[in-house]
Write a structure and sequence with these properties.
Layout (H helix, E strand, L loop, with lengths): L6 E5 L6 H14 L3 E4 L4 H7 L6 E6 L8 H13 L4 E5 L2 H5 L3 H14 L4 E5 L7 H13 L4 E3 L11 H10 L5 E5 L5 H10 L3 E4 L2 H12 L16
Parallel strand pairs: 1-2, 1-8, 2-3, 3-4, 4-5, 5-6, 6-7, 7-8
Length: 234
């Protein structure tokens, strides 16, 4: 199992300096993770920093609330992929989903997918604000609009990835759509439990802690504790 290639190393906190982003990119390259996920303004910097490393550059659109206009989200996605972004994590319009306006939500996502010009688009539902029925509807709409992933959270709302949500989202989409867990993925055991439930990518800031633990277990230095199913969240 290549745990590193399941991790999107998150560099989205508003207080990060460029020096902080540089250190994050160095960690991502050294640990050979799947990607970094940086703020839109940091995309050109991350592209240059990670050139030749095999680490993808991801970023966000409509972040963190999802309530910018569709035209702005699409323009943002287009500009970011032209700047070198490989993946775009967009926030759907949470209020419109909660209000039942699925046509708006579909068209909003589809516009970003088109603007991304074939790059991977992950749709953030922000599950903390949704009922289970709304989560399932959001997953269905995201798949119909051409998204490649559905994602639990931004990490900036009142809750993060939970085991129940991963199971629910995995069951709601076809095998061609992947599920990303974000928010509260701070330990290897959390990552592995959510992976067993169907998540294939993880937004994390505790990347080195997670990978150090995995390496120690691979060397037999730390026992793997029993991961009893925990549906309470992380």
């Amino acid at each position: 199992m290549n745990v590193a290639k399941m991790i999107d190393h998150s560099l989205l906190r508003p207080e990060l300096t460029l020096d902080d982003v540089a250190r994050g990119c160095e960690i991502a390259a050294r640990r050979a993770v799947a990607s970094v996920c940086v703020r839109p303004s940091d995309v050109p910097f991350a592209v240059a920093a990670l050139a030749g490393t095999g680490v993808l550059v991801g970023t966000v659109a409509g972040f963190p609330h999802g309530d910018t206009t569709t035209a702005i989200k699409a323009a943002e996605a287009r500009a970011l992929v032209e700047a070198g972004a490989d993946e775009v994590d967009m926030v759907l319009h949470i209020g419109r989903l909660r209000g039942g306006d699925t046509a708006y939500v579909h068209d909003d996502i589809a516009a970003v997918v088109a603007a991304a010009q074939g790059r991977v688009v992950k749709v953030i539902l922000e599950n903390a604000y949704l009922t289970d029925e709304q989560k399932v509807t959001g997953c269905h709409v995201a798949e119909a609009a051409g998204a490649h992933f559905v994602k639990t959270s931004t990490g900036f709302a009142g809750g993060g990835a939970t085991l129940d949500d991963i199971r629910l989202m995995r069951a709601a989409v076809s095998p061609s759509i992947q599920v990303k867990a974000a928010g509260g993925v701070r330990t290897l055991d959390t990552l592995l439990t959510l992976h067993e439930a169907g998540a294939t990518r993880f937004g994390a800031t505790a990347t080195e802690t997670i990978l150090d633990d995995f390496a120690a277990r691979e060397r037999g230095e730390r026992p793997a504790p029993s991961r009893a199913a925990d549906t309470s969240g992380y």
